[in-house]
Design brief:
Number of strands: 11
Number of helices: 9
Pfam families: AAA_5
GO molecular function, one term: ATP binding
Largest sheet: 5 strands, parallel
InterPro entries: AAA+_ATPase, ATPase_dyneun-rel_AAA, CbbQ/NirQ/NorQ/GpvN, P-loop_NTPase
Bound molecules: adenosine-5'-triphosphate, magnesium ion
Strand content: 15-25%
CATH superfamily of the largest domain: P-loop containing nucleotide triphosphate hydrolases
Length: 237
């Protein structure tokens, strides 16, 4: 049976199609936010990715002088600056984990194109975002109010990705496809991410379904998962 396209994916396609170039994708883990941000409607321009962690530094965002191997130093642009220069897409994953200096820098790099410029710290070069530059941020936060106001203000559209795209389940065995599209288990409503479905499908080939589900969800969770699959209870709650 052909699955309907979940509304969130339609919203995303329409939003990018309408030329909105600052978008946040939020919601539960493993629904395909990063996958879509890296691959879809990129206009055949380069895509740069930044994964925010507490250890990320400003140099990881805009660039740094690095040893060139012959005793000298060479400037290397970071992903945000590369995306500016190419007019491509900057994907900022787990944006809620960015803090301090990096957050300030992200605010500057995601500002409206007309008011953005970056000064090279030593050469004085001034860089502005090329036409086409766009940013997609992803987060597992459910409340956009938890993001700093200034960041939210730069991203007028936040779309909750609450279901996988049908193309994400194509590689799964047929019996898992409907369950993976719905992604929540029986009455508990517990979410099961795409990654778990991929792993289950792979593991059960050699270990069998019971052992595979136990490894993935623990003894009780594994039994619940098999039950939910058997009675088709995925997504009914
Ligand atoms: N449309 C798709 N086609 C094929 N594989 C997909 C698709 N969407 C997602 N996947 C796969 O599903 C897994 C989860 O996707 P992804 O990492 O994009 O999720 P996410 O929503 O960003 O999760 P998190 O919130 O944990 O970062 C990945 O292995 C990814 O390659
Ligand atoms: Mg992700």
């Amino acid at each position: 049976m052909e699955e309907l396209l979940p509304q969130c994916w339609d919203d995303l396609a329409a939003t990018i199609g309408a030329g909105i170039d600052r978008i946040i994708l939020f919601g539960p883990p493993g629904t395909g936010k990063t996958y879509a941000a890296l691959r879809w409607q990129t206009n055949e321009r380069p895509v740069e990715r930044l994964i925010c962690t507490e250890d990320l530094t400003a140099a990881d965002v805009t660039g740094a002088w690095l040893p060139n191997g012959t005793g000298g130093w060479q400037w290397q642009d970071g992903p945000a600056l590369r995306a500016w220069r190419s007019g491509g897409r900057l994907v900022v994953d787990e944006v809620d984990r960015a803090s301090g200096d990096v957050l300030s820098l992200l605010l500057a790099m995601a500002d409206s194109d007309g008011s953005s410029q970056w000064h090279h710290p030593t050469t004085g070069e001034v860089v502005r975002p090329a036409i086409g530059f766009n940013v997609i941020m992803t987060t597992n936060l459910e409340e956009m109010a938890l993001l700093p106001d200034a960041l939210r203000d730069r991203f007028p559209i936040a779309i909750r990705i609450n279901a996988p795209h049908p193309s994400a389940v194509r590689s799964l065995s047929d019996d898992l496809k409907p369950a993976a599209m719905h992604g929540s288990m029986g009455e508990s409503g517990r979410r099961v991410s795409l990654r778990k479905f991929y792993a289950f499908d792979q593991l059960r080939r050699t270990l069998g379904p019971t052992r595979a589900s136990e490894l993935l969800f623990g003894a009780q969770g594994g039994a619940d998962f098999i039950d939910a699959l058997r009675v088709g209870a995925m997504g009914r709650s």
